[in-house]
Specification:
alpha/beta, Rossmann fold, 8 strands, globular, binds NADP nicotinamide-adenine-dinucleotide phosphate
Length: 351
C-alpha cells in the first residue's frame, strides 16, 4: 500500500505524460472499447500514426459506424493531428459480456481479417455498482473485464505470435487500474475458497461494486504475469498491464445517472485532478508502442513507467493465488472454446 500514497498519486495525476514517437507503419492494431473514453482517444493517437489497419471495436454495429465517423472527424479537427486520414480504419462489433460474441469476433478475424495482428489493446471495461450476471452466468465485471479479455487474448495469441519477431515483438496491453492495489483485503479470504472464480462471481461474496471492480483489475494483473511467464525470453509477444490513472470518462456512468452523485463525483474528479481521457490514453499508447519492449514484458505500468504491482501479488500467498487463478481460468475458457487448450499447449511453455 505504500506504493499508493495519496500525495504521490496526486502528483502523478497532474503530470504531463509522454506520447511515443514510434511508428506503426505496416502494423495492424486492434483497440477494444473504442467508442468513448480512453479507447477513443487511444484510437485517434494510433490512427494519426497511420497503421496499415486500425480496428476499433465497439459493442454493436451502430456504435461501430458512429465511432468511425467520430474518429475521422477528430483526426481532422484535433490540434495534435496532421489532418490526413489513416491508411485504413475499421470498426468491428465486440461484446464482452458474451463468450460467443468474443469467439465470433476471432472467427471473423480469421476469415476476413488481415494476416497480421501486431498490437492488441484490451481496453474495454465496465463498472457495475449493482450486482449483475451475464447470459453466460458470470458476474458482469468478472466476465467483461477479466474472463472475456483473457479469452480474446488467448484466441488471438497465435496471430500475435505469427506477426512478430523478438526484435520487433507484438504487443498485448491489458488496461488494468490502480484500483487493483485495493483488492488485497478481499483476496486474503481466498485461501478458504474451493474455487476462486466461482467465489468472486457469487453474489454472496458480499462486497461493493467498487471492490468487485478492483478485484477484476487485480485478476488482469495476475493474468498478465501468468501469461508472460509462460512465453519464451526474449519474447516475440510483449504483454503489459497498464493503469491509465484516474480519468474523466464514462466509466462511472451508472452512478452519474443520479444528479447528486454526479455532482459529488465531479467534485471528487476535480479534487483528485482527474486526467482528461486523452492524457490517460497516452498510457495505453505508450505501453503499446514504446521501443523498450522487452523491459515492459509481464510488467504493470502507471504514468508511462514500470511500477510494482500490489504487495499481495508479489507475496508468496499472492503467487500461489495467481497460479490457482491461471489454471481455473484455463479450465473455464477451455470449456468455452476448444481452441484454448490447443493454443496453450502449442505456444506456451510449461512452468
Ligand atoms: N477512467 C478511469 O479513471 C479509469 C481508471 C483505471 C482504469 N480504467 C480502465 O480503462 C478502460 C477504459 O475505460 P474508460 O475510463 O475509458 O471508460 P468508458 O468511457 O466507459 O469506456 C469503456 C469502454 O469499454 C466498453 N465496454 C463496456 N462494457 C463492454 C462490454 N460488455 N463489451 C464490450 N465493450 C464494453 C465501452 O463501450 P460502451 O460505451 O458501449 O459501453 C467503452 O467503449 C477500462 O478498462 C477501465 O476499467 C479507467
Amino acid at each position: 500500500m505504500g506504493k499508493l500514497s495519496f500525495w504521490s498519486f496526486l502528483r502523478e495525476q497532474g503530470r504531463d505524460l509522454p506520447l511515443p514517437n514510434e511508428s506503426v507503419h505496416g502494423k495492424t492494431v486492434v483497440i477494444a472499447g473504442a467508442n468513448v473514453g480512453l479507447g477513443l482517444e487511444a484510437s485517434v493517437h494510433v490512427a494519426n500514426k497511420k497503421p496499415s489497419l486500425l480496428i476499433a471495436t465497439c459493442r454493436d454495429t451502430m456504435k461501430c459506424r458512429q465511432t468511425l465517423e467520430i474518429t475521422r472527424v477528430l483526426l481532422v479537427l484535433c490540434k495534435r493531428c496532421s489532418g490526413t486520414q489513416p491508411a485504413s480504419l475499421d470498426s468491428w462489433p465486440l461484446e464482452l459480456s458474451s463468450f460467443d460474441n468474443v469467439r465470433s469476433f476471432v472467427d471473423r478475424f480469421d476469415a476476413e481479417g488481415p494476416e497480421r495482428l501486431n498490437i492488441l489493446v484490451a481496453n474495454a471495461g465496465t463498472f457495475k455498482p449493482v450486482y449483475t450476471r451475464t447470459q453466460d452466468d458470470w458476474e458482469m465485471m468478472l466476465q467483461v473485464n477479466y474472463l472475456s479479455m483473457a479469452l480474446l487474448s488467448i484466441l488471438l495469441l497465435p496471430l500475435l505470435l505469427r506477426s512478430a519477431t523478438c526484435e520487433d515483438p507484438s504487443r498485448l496491453v491489458l488496461v488494468s487500474s490502480l484500483g487493483h492495489y485495493l483488492a488485497d483485503p478481499v483476496l486474503t479470504r481466498s485461501r478458504n475458497w474451493d474455487n476462486v472464480l466461482g467465489a468472486i462471481s457469487a453474489e454472496k461474496l458480499g462486497v461493493s461494486g467498487a471492490s468487485r471492480y478492483n478485484l477484476t483489475k487485480m485478476l488482469q494483473v495476475a493474468f498478465v504475469r501468468g501469461l508472460a511467464a509462460r512465453l519464451p525470453s526474449p519474447t516475440p509477444l510483449v504483454i503489459t498491464a497498464v493503469d491509465p490513472g484516474f480519468c474523466h470518462s464514462s466509466l462511472l456512468r451508472e452512478l452519474e445517472k443520479y444528479r447528486l452523485l454526479r455532482m459529488v463525483l465531479a467534485f471528487v474528479k476535480w479534487l483528485l485532478r482527474a486526467r482528461t481521457s486523452e492524457m490517460g490514453s497516452r498510457n495505453l499508447v505508450y505501453a503499446a508502442l514504446a521501443t523498450n519492449a522487452q523491459d515492459l514484458h509481464g510488467k504493470y505500468m502507471s504514468s508511462c513507467e514500470i511500477v510494482e504491482e500490489c504487495d499481495y501479488l508479489l507475496s508468496a500467498e499472492g503467487k500461489a493465488f495467481s497460479e490457482r487463478l491461471w489454471w481455473e481460468t484455463i479450465e473455464v475458457l477451455a470449456k468455452v472454446d476448444n481452441r484454448v487448450s490447443q493454443i496453450l499447449s502449442t505456444y506456451l511453455q510449461a512452468r
